[in-house]
Amino acid sequence: MDIIVCLKQIYDLAQIKIDTSKRPVTEGVARKLGDFDKNALEEAIRIKEKHGGNVFAVIKGAKDAAKEALAMGADEAILYNAGTESLGTAHILAEIIRKMKYDLILCGEASIDEYSFQTGPRLAQALGIPVMTYARKMEVRDGGVVVERDLEKTYEVAIAKLPALVTVTKEINEPRIPTLIQILGASKKKITETSPSKPDAGVETLSILAVEMKRKEVILKDVEALAKVIITEK
Amino acid sequence: MILIFSEDNETAFEMLAKGRELAESSRSELTSISFGDGENDHISCGADKVFSIQFQDSKMGHSLLADTVVDVISQLIDQYKPETLLIGSTKLGREVAPRIAQRFGVGCVTDCIDFSKDNEQFTVKRFVLGGRFIMTQKFLHKPRIVTIPPRRFEKKIDISRKGEIIKTSFKPVETKIQVVEIKKKAPHELKIEEANIIVSAGRGMKKKEDIKLIEDLAQVLGGVVGCSRSIAADLKWLSEEHWVGLSGHNVKPRLYIAIGISGQVQHIAGIRDSKTIIAINKDPNAAIFKACDYGMVGDLYDIVPKLTEILKKQS
Q1: Which of B16, B91, B151, B232 has the largest CB neighbor count within 10 A?
Q2: Is A4 exposed, middle or buried (0-12, 13-18, 19+ CB in 10 A)?
Q3: Which of A122, A138, A149 has the most B C-beta neighbours within 10 Å, making it the best mutation to test the interface with B?
Q4: From the CB of residue B134, how many other CB atoms can be counted at a distance below 10 Å?
Q5: Taking a C-beta distance cutoff of 8 angstroms, is the pair B259, B249 a contact?
Q6: Terminus-to-terminus CA distance in chain B, angstroms?
Q7: A:99-118 residues touching chain B, CB 8 A cutoff
Q8: Residue A159 sits at the chain B interface (C-beta within 8 Å)
Q9: Cis preceding linkage at B143, omega within 30
């Protein structure tokens, strides 16, 4: 069972400050692996522990991100670094992954910096393999993958034959924290750095500006008035 | 042509209202997709044409597969070449929109909070970086694919509107995914991100048992219980599913009631997309009062039971 996990290194959002022209300041802000991406990696490692095989972490980010993934239990890391939009990311990932052997691809449902939910579905579409999104439980069996998808009002149990791509939610597991031995052991594992050509991004960003809160800020004097507002607004 | 799709009718109606404005300003035709119901409602809500999708040899059952939607919309794009697609940001919509975009090699912007067209430039806005920033983007190609969250715009109904219903027949798409079971969620399993009403508890609560006050109010309102970081992460009085904020869950209810919550940056960022925010806190200088629509200064132990009582009588 060869499993590919797609991960992204993201800024610690709480550390991002705002400059005088309301733009985000990311210099000096620490980066870490995306939260749901780590759930995807954890799930891949658990499947490997049960079924054998290899876990390949394909990461948008720098070497420290690769080390983090390898310490958790990935066997090999492939790094790429191209600041681009979802269309471009899917294009680069597909280009890297087409050269690899795989049975299963795992992604987080979204990245917590952008929350665009695009990379998993786009990558599956680019590779022409089935995709099942929002998995809160999954199991590999009989050459297929069974997932329980967390939808708005239902849980949907669905099966796809491998190869397939699954995006996972944060409820699926609790990502492990590597031990010191695992962190040291990770330095022996292979990291490949690739520099893909800059693909078509599909969209162009014109600005990123801090949100201004525009709330009414009405202070009410009594509970009756408060109840009235709640009845109107609910 | 502008093409609208959501499997959730209400979301489709809301997008039709906004799509109508865009259709008027860009002199485009406004069209929508229906999978077998509500065609006339689409017209009343603003559609010029509705593609009513029928399947030959239908064994579709009750769940609409993403594979099917991707296939149907892609065929409509091939045939009609719409310049803009508006897709409802449900879990289905957020899967099909990027897949269609990938298929046509174009950009897609999900969870758009607004879009506009001035001087021939079509721009879209969405929250990024944990909801603290708004990103404005433009598309480099057509079709432009945009997803819009439910309840973003107000629907507008005019039953005298006329429109055309185009019955379009499709072969069922071949899919490699088999749905074997659909389990309905119990009300308490509904995720806080999807709740319409959230009543949240903060550090103003004196002990774990007092969370009951919040639960009672939430119950009367048919809402879900939320909490600030300290209640979930430090005190562990509620599980992390209830944690609202940047590191917990970002929420966007119609009504958010913050009780005994001071309003730290992390928390406020997580509730930014709520329609109406109400705060109850004993400290008149609490940051939450600068981030709410309606506030009441006072002791929550005095206010909340009274409020629950009044609302109970009303319902």
Answers
A1: B16
A2: buried
A3: A122
A4: 20
A5: no
A6: 45
A7: 112-118
A8: yes
A9: yes
Paired residues of A32 in beta bridges:
A10
Contact B91 A207 (CB under 8 A): no
In sequence order, the β-bridge partners of residue B280 are: B259, B296
pLDDT tens across the length of chain B (315 residues): 999 999 999 999 999 999 999 999 999 999 999 988 899 999 999 999 999 998 876 555 556 789 999 999 999 999 999 999 999 999 999 999 999 999 999 999 999 999 988 777 899 999 898 778 999 999 999 999 999 988 889 999 999 999 999 999 888 888 899 999 999 877 666 678 889 999 999 999 999 999 999 999 999 999 999 999 889 878 889 988 899 987 778 898 999 999 999 998 779 888 988 999 999 999 999 999 989 999 999 999 999 999 999 999 987
Cβ–Cβ below 8 Å for A226 and B296 = yes
Token digits of residue A234? 């609910």
Q: What beta strand segments (E) does B171-298 contain?
A: 177-184, 197-201, 224-227, 255-259, 276-281, 294-297
Torsional sign, CA A171, A129, B128, B18: negative
This complex has an ipTM of 0.92
In this structure, what token pair is assigned to residue B253? Answer: 């209810």
- Residue B257 with chain A: CB contacts under 8 Å: 230
- Of B53, B280, B22, B254, the closest CA to residue B170 belongs to B53
Bridge partners of residue B259, in order along the sequence:
B201, B280
Residue type, B45: C
What are the DSSP E strand ranges found in B64-111? 84-88, 108-109
Which of B129, B275, B295 lies closest to A16 in CB terms?
B129
Token digits of residue B204: 């103003």
